[in-house]
Design brief:
two-stranded parallel ribbon; 17 helices
Length: about 325
């Protein structure tokens, strides 16, 4: 996860999403790059199926067929396939397990582990892709990217005159295709979920955050006519509005971190249980085992030298060792 974008860039993202298109320059002329919606997406899915069938008819091997050949030649293995599947499930479990955590230090540690596992998975998947080479799936996906460009690039703001036909696009030279791809990637590469989340929690967006009762009111068009990015922006708007208006005060330190806000909102019952443990600590009971001062502040607990429990200090008081009963007591159980 990279650093947040500057506010000016986030404002441009908002402008383009609301407009439903972005502006770019191609061959020294302004073009209008339309954002696609559900109908376009279904058409593109049909296009993918059509070209998958064409590739198979032409004798291009499927991914499954290439994998079988790679395993037979010992260039890949079933164990490596299982490793990828297991790692995907492991990452899913790590994400699910965050819902049972309420200490920010625990959540941060879990997020680091998830990022580490994702990096390893991506490296393994990249190796797999490089071995697969040309398959029916790859051919169909490439043709879909072509159609995305053809459907998106227009010479006019009314979206009546396309920059490319299928024939003219197929005739592009390698350098021309690289130029078009660069324009496409530069525009749509900014419309990520991470950037949408950072946009929604910016101060300048707060007015819109509280005016999102219905998509029709928000964008002025029926839901089925919204672009994919408008739907994503609306979804994150309602998500973070729910967090900020839940009735529970959001810790100041996490208000500008979308991932920490989502993690914080996942486990309100855990925070209540932790606060009960802390309340007992003020009456002479054990505090929260392993909690840092920042953890307690995130829970909305006053920190005046109480509540945090040092394992080493407690063990020293109890003769140098701790048994299971001691550990359960320190954990509030």
């Amino acid at each position: 996860m990279g650093p947040p974008l500057k506010q000016s860039v986030l404002k441009r993202i908002l402008r383009d999403v609301v407009r439903g298109h972005s502006l770019a320059s191609y061959r020294e002329k302004r073009i209008y790059v339309k954002h696609l919606g559900i109908i376009d997406q279904v058409d593109i899915d049909d296009y993918r199926d059509e070209h998958y069938a064409k590739a198979k008819k032409r004798g291009i091997p499927t991914e499954k067929e290439i994998l079988e050949l790679l395993i037979e030649n010992k260039e890949w293995s079933e164990e490596e396939e299982e490793e990828i599947a297991k790692k995907e499930k492991y990452i899913e479990r790590l994400i699910e397990n965050k819902s049972g955590m309420y200490l920010q230090s625990q959540l941060d540690g879990q997020e680091e582990l998830i990022e580490h596992e994702r990096k390893e998975l991506n490296e393994k998947a990249a190796t797999r892709r490089s071995l697969l080479g040309n398959t029916c799936e790859e051919y169909a996906d490439k043709r879909c990217i072509d159609l995305y460009v053809i459907r998106s690039f227009f010479e006019d703001g009314n979206f009546e005159k396309r920059v490319f036909t299928q024939e003219s696009f197929d005739e592009l030279t390698h350098s021309e295709l690289s130029e078009v791809t660069l324009i496409y990637d530069k525009i749509f590469g900014t419309f990520t979920e991470e950037n949408f989340q950072n946009l929604v929690i910016e101060d300048f967006y707060s007015t819109y955050l509280h005016a999102c009762e219905r998509p029709m009111d928000f964008f002025g068009v029926p839901t089925l006519r919204l672009t994919h990015y408008q739907l994503r922006l609306y979804a994150f708007t309602t998500l973070f509005k729910g967090i900020f208006t839940s009735g529970e005060e959001v810790p100041f330190k996490i208000r500008k971190d979308p991932q920490k806000l989502i993690d914080w909102a996942r486990n309100p019952k855990g925070r209540e249980a932790a606060k009960e443990v802390m309340a007992k600590a003020t009456e002479g009971g054990a505090g929260l085992f392993g909690a840092t001062k920042e953890d307690l502040e995130s829970l909305g607990v006053e920190t005046k030298g109480i509540g945090t429990v040092s394992l080493e200090a407690v063990a020293k008081k109890r003769g140098g060792t701790l048994d299971m009963k001691d550990l359960m007591e320190l954990s509030g159980m």
